[in-house]
Amino acid sequence: MSQTAHIPSHRKPRRSASKLALRAGVAGGVLSTIAVAGAAGPANAEPVTETIEMPTLGSLGTDLSSAVAASAEASEQEALDQSLEAQEAAALEKAAKDAKKAKAEADRKAEAERAEKARKEAEAKAEAERAAAEARAEARARASRDAARTQIAATSASNSSDSGSSDSSSSSSSASESTQVASGSAAAIVAFAKAQVGDAYVSGGTGPNSWDCSGLVQAAYRQAGIDLPRISYSQSSMGTSVSLSNLQPGDILYWGSRSGSYHVAIYVGGGKYVGAQNPSTGVVERSLDWDTPSGAVRIL
């Protein structure tokens, strides 16, 4: 072995800084001891030719750099993991909010559909009740008319002379009525009303092919440029009250009281009227004797 040969160092890789400093201190102490022993030994003693390799600053820097790099990589990985976790949490929160919003919208639509269904059912029920009320009122009016006719027939049978006189008067009245001819605005009203005969009766109907009583009267008067209220009792409250013996074409007939009528129609002359009666008959032309009105008003 050469005198300048070095003893190889058996260092383990990546020692910590504290361990490296400790080793350097131990090595320094050994060198100091050798130096003292050499100075105190005999003059003819052979010099120590073997040396011990000490760790260099370069190797210490390499170990520190590796440790720092490993720590930075670990920190970067941890930061990436935290970022991914934050993104997943945000996505879950957004999905939960979207689901809640969708459910609220579905509940709102369902509630609106239920409300609309309830409204339609209420309207249908109200219409049915109104039609039934009108039918009952018409039945009562007919019963009252029949009772009056029965009483008149009984009176006529007991007094034939009075009956003959009454028949003569009645014939004259009928002849007078048959000669009535509508003109001007009245003609337009009568013509429109007659043109609707055969149309259906629908509660709340305002045409063009289905009507209720006040809807037909309102539309007929509109042909003459006259705007009437929509409701029967409001229509019968307008104009001037006239007797049934002094009717003119275009007069409004009403059943019930003038300010509380439940049915209206249009007198078309000849002892007849046109009205939207009920769902069974629709719009019809009838004789005054078929269902005698309670009264009449004149608008023209």
Shape: rod-shaped
Number of strands: 10
- The computed structural class is alpha+beta
Mean pLDDT over all positions: 76
Distance between the termini: 147 Å
CATH class of the domain at 179-300: Alpha Beta
Kindly estimate the percentage of residues that lie in beta strands according to DSSP: 5-15%
Concise account of the structure shown:
This protein has six helices and ten strands; from the N terminus they run E-H-E-H-H-H-E-E-H-H-E-E-E-E-E-E. With 300 residues, the protein is an alpha+beta fold. The strands form three sheets. Strands 5-10-6-7-8-9 form a six-stranded antiparallel sheet. The chain has a two-stranded parallel ribbon with strand order 1-2. Strands 3-4 form a two-stranded parallel sheet.
